[in-house]
Write a structure and sequence with these properties.
Layout: E1 2-10, H1 15-31, E2 35-40, E3 49-56, H2 59-69, H3 73-85, E4 88-96, H4 105-110
Antiparallel strand pairs: 1-3, 1-4, 2-3
Helix pairs in contact: 1-3
């Protein structure tokens, strides 16, 4: 399993727009075989940073999702919404391997 961690720099005056964008993507990631763990918006502290986490069974399956999303009308509409509202200033993406207490070491090492 691979988890994509996204750190967004957002326009603090456009949190409502970013929240709408987030709600567009959650079902799309799930539709393409991922498991979305949610978006995390500013509450206390920095007002311009948000996060998202979602997982795919493998990096290869994540790459398939990325390719398919470039052809999907709903995904393209979500990209356009962010561009038109300019709610996202920038973002960085990292990939993590989660460790759960109920997995044995062999399973964790395979992914």
């Amino acid at each position: 399993m691979v988890t994509c961690y996204l750190k967004y720099i957002i326009d603090p005056w456009k949190i409502a727009e970013f929240e709408h964008y987030a709600k567009l993507w959650i079902p799309l990631v799930n539709q393409f075989g991922g498991q979305h763990h949610g978006y995390f918006l500013p509450s206390e502290g920095a007002s311009h940073i948000a996060y998202a986490l979602f997982s795919f069974p493998s990096l290869a399956e994540y790459e398939c999702y990325r390719q398919q999303s470039m052809q999907d009308e709903a995904c393209q509409a979500a990209f356009r919404y962010a561009e038109e509202t300019r709610c996202i200033v920038s973002y960085e993406r990292s990939f993590l391997r989660p460790v759960f207490g109920d997995q044995d070491d062999a399973t964790s090492a395979e992914n």
